[in-house]
Request: fold
Amino acid sequence: MYLDSHTHMISRTTDDYERMAAAGVVACIEPAFWLGQPRTSVGTYIDYLSLICGFERFRAGQFGLRHYCTVGLNPKEANNEELAEAVMEILPRYALKEGVVAIGEIGYDEQTELEDRYFRRQLELAKELQLPVMIHTPHRDKKKGTLRSMDVVREHGLDPSWVVIDHNNEETVQEVLDRGFWAAFSIYPFTKMGNERMVEIVRRYGAERIFCDSACDWGISDPLAVPKTAELMRRAGIPEADIRKVTYENPLTAYGKSGQIKEEDWLNPPPVDQRLLYMGNSILRGGQEPRIETRRPGLDEDLRIV
Amino acid sequence: MSPSERALDLLTRWVVARVPAEAAEWFRAQLAAVAGARDEKPLYLALGWAPRRLGKADLRLSPRELAEAAEVRPGFDPVDWSVDQAARVALVLASYDGDPQRFKARLETLFRTADIGETIAFYRGLPLYPAPELLVARAREGARSGMRPVFEAVAHRNPYPKERFDENAWNHLVLKALFIGTSLDPIQGLDERANPRLVRMLCDYAHERWAAGRPVSPELWRCVGPHADEAALADLARVLETGGGEERKAAALALSSCPRPEAKALLARHPELEGPIARGEIRWAAFAQA
Reply:
């Protein structure tokens, strides 16, 4: 069983859902982010948030995956002040929706003044509503941005065990762990982590407070990154208990603090969920017969992510 | 008390009777806060907290409670409602301040920012809201949903569509039900609102399915029988000749509801079906999918 704690499933196909389910991914978390291009009005933001806690959640359930999300104003769009103010108005309407497991992705992109302002305001919102936080660390000036994010979290008095620092790499991990935060790694080709590097991270730092995700989105990315990384770790002789922590248990513990994601959601879903949302392994659209996948396609042929 | 106020009272009593004292107290306080609120925040926060504070158990209403429901609002059938759904609809009703337009606008905003659970609850509440004539467009939006449980919240065990939908909206509701593979039987008013245009739509749909080699729901023929024209009778004859067991029973049952003499004659050629139908042994409810 795997939990992919960072997926932008709205830009993925049904094939991806089928392959993820077949590879053992039981649940995924969809953090609110931009769409590859900036939004121009709060209306599209409302539709987006409704989509990730509405139809996408339903769609995932048709393929036997439980779907959760985080809501927040991302740092890129925080630079549009008019939009940012309007989004801050509507965010509280979404923060308590079913399956919202954190405020996120928030943090810095270019570390501007506006980014800083809305990052702080959202940390306060998370505190008020007792929600975990998912922090997006910047791609550029990464190390400084990561340290600064953690400083600001501390300044606002949040407990680091409620805060996930995502998109880590070899340069940031030590400091994140030392300060008591969760260290997440996005296995994403070319710009973030490769999974052979991830194996080395686990070998070196162990599995405490470390986990990996795919961050799969509209770019070249891999929705099987978590099961593939698990398989690589297995072949590298990492103990099974550690693999489980890095690919399942740790994100469940971190985001489980919201009270909105529980193992029983997929192991023993309540009848009301089975009626409304979650179709187990069946794909019921268009009169197709429910089917159970036994094959695990794609894993052996294509294991490495660089 | 207006019907909406009586409904609010009813829902409140059901919820309070089913949750621990502390949760009941929280719920009553939220209703009061929402009723006296000057902005929308108490309402949307209470709607968000409701399932967390009150749980999502089935209401499991007693026969007496169900009878009371139907007495407060004819057609109101909350047999499969849950505690959080009743609570959410009660909170929405509590926000009514006597201004129907403001209520409509508030409901629209709630729908626009609702998650699936809220969406289902809000649609289930349709028969209870004040000024229902203002909500037709919203109800039709729900009946266009591709999310089956959302569609069913409007279509199933809900008197709103049969009371408020015009013929075109009604016909599309029935067709959509078949299209997404849900049952027709729980749709209220199915027989009384059957009409010739719907017959044509349904028979065309059946032909499309046959052409594609896909199965046709036996329930489809229920809305065809009463207004069947010559072409529809030919379709029913085809089902009787070539269909499977369930389909043949459904076609025969449809023929028995058709006033035309040709229908009677056609049915008479299949005594193995005509007999059980005459004795009431074949009923539409039995074709409903789970």
Q: What stands out?
A: Strands of chain A lie at 2-4, 25-31, 66-71, 100-107, 133-136, 163-166, 182-186, 210-213.
